[in-house]
Amino acid sequence: MRIVVVGGWAPSLLKFRGPLLAAMVGRGHQVTAMAADQDAETTAGLADIGVDFQAIGVERAGLDPRRDVQLVRELQHRMRALRAEQFFAYTIKPVVYGAMAARAAGVPRRAAMITGLGYAFAPPSSVKHRAVSAVARGMYRLGLAQCQQVFFQNPDDKAEFGRLGLLPKRTAVEIVRGSGVDVDHYAVAPLEMASSEGRTFLFVGRLLADKGIREYAAMARAVRAVRPATRFLVAGWLDPNPTSVSQAELDGWIREGSIEYLGAQADIRPAIARAQVLVLPSYREGTPRSVLEAMSMGRAIITTDAPGCRETIVDGEQGLLVPVRDAAALTRAGLALTDDPALLQRMGTAARQRIVQLYDARAVANHMLDTLGL
Amino acid sequence: MLTSGRLSRVDLSRGARDTAAVSAQRSLNPLYVIGAGGHAKVVIATAQSIMLPLGGEPVALWPDIRVRDDNTAIHGRSIMGITVEGDNASILRDPHFCAVLAIGNNGVRARIGTTAKCRFATVIHHQSIVHSTVRIGTGTVVFAGAIVQPDTVIGAHCIINTGASVDHDCVLGDAVHIAPGARLAGGVTVGARSFIGIGAVVAPGITIGDDVIIGAGAAVVRDIPSGTTAVGVPARPLTPRERL
User: Fold this and answer.
1) Which distant-in-sequence residues (6+ apart) come within 8 Å of A85 by Cβ?
2) Hey, is the C-beta of B20 within 8 angstroms of any chain A C-beta?
3) Which residue, of A98, A123, A235, B119, is most buried by count of CB atoms within 10 Å of its CB?
4) Chain A residues in contact with B4 (beta carbon < 8 A)
5) What is the pLDDT along chain B (244 residues), one digit of tens a residue?
């Protein structure tokens, strides 16, 4: 079968959907991947697994309707030219415009994956935010109405879409474990318990308020007040997203010594290997990849009892769950793990086991393809 | 391949999530103090001393401290304004609870510490001085005025009592008790479950074995073998007859 997969950001095709694309090829399908901002590495990587790449004019954010109409036309043209039989998209614009284009192009099978609800579903912070949210929801409703199958990464996102009336009755829905994780690439790294280095925590992600970066910084300050040898790493970057922290705020945390800023990492594995615990105090996620990757490498987790996050671990077994926006609870969890190396070891081992059993990317990909009947 | 799908559905059920939500609260709060004697008062005061700078008003690390004791006769009594609420077993066997052992007997602390399934807190008084290079085992308490110097390693479930000092490069086994005002010079080794009495002093580099008792005010200037009791200045082991 001829499959077209559309994503927003080209590197995500390999990083996040690589195992899915490989499984499609492995089952004998011809796969064409499309995304914006072509880069040579992605094109080459996709070619290696037998997937063609086509760059399209999609922008991840922004709301210029003329550009969007152009985009739908372009996608429609390309899918018709390919005589695609299955359409699959993820992230908001590819899902919405792709699905409309796929239908117009006569692609008979259309599926979408909701990878996270993002800014558009957070509690509105301003009039503009409210307007953007309303538009985004309307777009999802329109796009998903063109799909026969929708995948969610966690039950809360599915419930939220249902509550907002974004899921047409005849659309089939399935929950999958995110995109899974490549358990060979993220191999177990021995826990470095060197006392001279102290206990080390790690935050990975964009420095957004919604990811809980401010709670992480508060936790770093408080834990270090009581256990000065503890270290708090941040592997992330400032983002144009409206909820991003400012450079000045980040500089303040670095100057006071609360956090050590690693910046964006091309390969996150060395940072995970340095830390004993990965912390993600996020308010909402699809399925947080950083958590899965750290678990795969045998690391304990502290994350929130929030949609997408709470499913990744069982509280007390692979890590600790804390309420959202609660720096005190986060600090208590941090201290609990700082003071108990045996617990860290046990949780790290349990984390790897859980990943291998439930989140292996190949199993997740096969689950999706089985659901699609591919 | 169907198995993975089935697993997903079972584990992502609402029931599993509700359990997680409940335990997310109880796993970090409260702190259970095990034992309701005089020593427990100091453990409670020490836990209450620890405040977290979280911006604005400092927040207590343990805002909810509870007390348990196996002596049913004192259930319902109040200690430091906290009501003794029940026995120990239900707390000690549940990995979701966090406890600290406020029991003076070193052997009992060691036994409970190794068999219990709950988590243990390390409780270090706000006004003690513990160097950042010191490694302290889980469940150990360090009281007000105690000083622990660089590169010392302290085991689990130890008591570093009021105003005691443990100098550089010492190694303390599990469930050791350094009584108030006792002083360990640099490089001293103390074996598991040993007790250094109030005001005792231990000279540099001395090795004290397991299950040793050093009497109050003793001055230890020679190594002390495991299982012995030593008293006096200079400290000498008691003969079996003297121990009776």
Assistant:
1) A1, A2, A3, A107, A108, A109
2) yes
3) A98
4) 358, 363-364, 366-367
5) 333 333 333 333 333 444 444 444 455 579 999 999 999 999 999 999 999 999 888 899 999 999 999 999 999 999 999 999 999 999 999 988 999 999 999 999 999 999 999 999 999 999 999 999 999 999 999 999 999 999 999 999 999 999 999 999 999 999 999 999 999 999 999 999 999 999 999 999 999 999 999 999 999 999 999 999 999 999 999 877 776 6
The C-alpha atoms of residue A226 and residue B228 are separated, in whole angstroms, by: 37
Q: Is B177 a residue of the active site?
A: no
Q: Candidates 3.40.640.10, 3.40.309.10, 3.40.50.2000, 3.40.50.300; correct CATH number of A2-175? A: 3.40.50.2000
| Interchain pair B17, A332: CB under 8 A | no
Nearest to A339 among B2, B4, B138 (CB): B138
Q: Does B6 touch chain A (CB under 8 A)?
A: no
Taking contacts as CB-CB distances below 8 angstroms, the residues of chain A near B138 are 339-343
For CATH 3.40.50.2000, list the domain ranges present in chain A. Answer: 2-175, 195-359
A196 touches chain B (CB under 8 A): yes
Of the residues B39, B125, B157, B168, only one is catalytic, namely: B168
Asked whether residue B116 falls in the same domain as residue B221, the answer is no
Nearest to B119 among A229, A340, A341 (CB): A340
Length of chain B equals 244
| CB-based contact A305 B9, cutoff 8 Å | no
Closest CA to A207 of A241, A230, A231, A232: A241
Count of beta carbons in the 10 Å neighbourhood of residue B62: 21
d(CA A252, CA A207): 14
d(CA A58, CA A78): 14
Q: Which residue has the tokens 């598991």?
A: B192
Question: Does the pLDDT of residue A76 top 90, yes or no?
Answer: yes
List all residues of chain A from 141 to 170 with a beta carbon under 8 Å from chain B.
154-155
- For residue A194, pLDDT over 60 is answered with no
Closest partner CB to B8 (pick from A176, A196, A331): A176
Q: What's B216's DSSP letter?
A: T
Determine whether the interchain pair B24/A177 forms a contact, defined as Cβ–Cβ distance below 8 Å: no
Mean pLDDT of chain A: 91
Give dist(CA A313, CA A294) in Å, integer.
12
| Domain boundary, last residue among B120, B153, B182 | B120
Quick one: average pLDDT of A25-42? 91
pLDDT digits (tens, 9 = 90+) for A119-149: 667 767 788 888 888 888 888 999 999 999 9
B27–chain A Cβ distance below 8 A for any pair: yes
- The answer to whether the Cβ–Cβ distance between A155 and B23 falls below 8 Å is no
pLDDT of residue A198: 73
Fold of A195-359: Rossmann fold (3.40.50)
- CA gap A312, A290 in Å, rounded: 11
Q: Which residues contact B120 (CB under 8 A, 6 or more apart)?
A: A340, B98, B99, B100, B101, B113, B138, B139, B156, B157
Burial class (CB in 10 A: 0-12, 13-18, 19+), B153: middle
Beta carbons within 10 angstroms of residue B1's beta carbon: 12
What is the token pair recorded at A95?
């899902």
Between B204 and A154, the higher pLDDT residue: B204
B57 exposure class (CB count in 10 Å sphere: 0-12, 13-18, 19+): exposed
